[in-house]
Structure formats: structure tokens, C-alpha cells
Amino acid sequence: MLKNKYSSELIEAGCDEAGRGCLAGPVFAASVILPPDFYHPLLNDSKQVTEGHREQLRYIIEKEAIAWAVSSSSVSVIDEINILKASFKAMHVAIDQLTTRPQLLLIDGHIFPAYMGVVHQCVVKGDAKFTSIAAASILAKTHRDEYMYTIHIRYPQYGWNNNKGYGTKAHIQAIATHGICEHHRKSFGPCK
Predict the structure, then answer these.
(1) What CA–CA distance (Å, rounded) separates 158 from 73?
(2) For the chain, which residues make up each domain, given as ranges?
(3) Which one, 25, 34, 89, 136, has least CB within 10 Å?
């Protein structure tokens, strides 16, 4: 059962990213402030939810959230500053875009660079513990998947409609056969 709040007094925003381990495409991050009593039986860590249910949840979260925002860091940014820093940069931009200023940030993971004086709490596996982080994981994942479907149209040989840029056997084989393209992370394993 996901918890709705970490602190009962503060306006909390959950933050999570999607696509950190991919060989291609940007890393996406989302930040979400939910109503204190928000509940949906399907809401969970995006990796535990089917694609169809994630799309349903995206619609509900975007409609019912007090505030939400999604951002991304490009492949060139990832290659320039590294994937961890690029993930944090995307999270900071998503937080910047919230229409309500949070008083506490709940971060999925174990480290996070402080954001403009707002208190933060890192929660390992937080997307399976707190509703706001789970909601952020759903938005980051669905927005990223949508982007990967879009670029798949131009580069169908990599199978991004199925692998979303992750290093599956078929994707690695496609890189060996066709080489890399502008959407590949040149600092990552088989793309080097």
C-alpha cells in the first residue's frame, strides 16, 4: 500500500526519472504534487504497471494532480555531463515548471543535489512506497515512451517501439548492423 504523505504539514512533490539505463533517447524526469487524499488502485512503480494501465494513470494523474511537470535531458547533455547529472538536471527543470511551489521533495533513489533551498528526502525504491513518487514515475515513463515511439518512425531498424532504447539483444544487434544514429548515447557501452 502506497503512502500518501511523508510529512503531514508540507506540500510535497514526488520526483522520478525514466530512461537512465537506455542506449538511446533522452532521460525524462517528472515532478508531481498530488492531493493529500489521492488514491488509485492501479498506481504503483511504473515498472510494475502494464503499458495500458500506465496510459490510464497518466490521464488521471495529469487531470487530478495539484501540479505536475515533465522535463528531459538530451542525448548530447547526457554525453557531456553523464547520465546521473543529466537525470538530476531534468528533475530540477521539472520542479522549476511546477505551478505550485513544493515545500518538500520526495526523490526516488539515494542521492540528489539540493534544489534551491527546498528540503528533500531521498527514498530508495520510493516509486513503490509513496503515491507522489509513483505518479512521477508514471509520467516520466509514459512521456518518454511517447517520445521513443515518435523517433522510431524515422529509425525503425532499432525497434524503439518495443525496446524504448534499452540495450536489448535486438537493439544491440541493430547497432552492430546499422551503426548508431543521432539519438544514441555515444558515451554508453555498445555506442562508443
Answers:
(1) 21
(2) 12-144
(3) 89
CATH topology of domain 12-144: Nucleotidyltransferase; domain 5 (3.30.420)
Cβ–Cβ < 8 Å for 106, 33 = no
Helix (H, G, I), strand (E, B) or coil at 70: strand
Q: Give me the residue label for grid cell 503512502.
A: 3
Q: Which whole-number Å values give the CA distances from 158 to 25, 65, 95, in the listed order?
A: 12, 35, 32
Residues across the chain: 192
pLDDT tens, residue by residue, 92-115: 999 999 999 999 999 999 999 999
SS (H, E, C) 101-123: CCCEEEEECCCCCCECCEEEEEE
CB 91 within 8 A of CB 32: no
The C-alpha atoms of residue 97 and residue 101 are separated, in whole angstroms, by 9
Write out residues in the chain with pLDDT < 70, as ranges.
none
Q: Do 30 and 68 contact (CB within 8 A), yes or no?
A: yes
Helix (H, G, I), strand (E, B) or coil at 55: helix
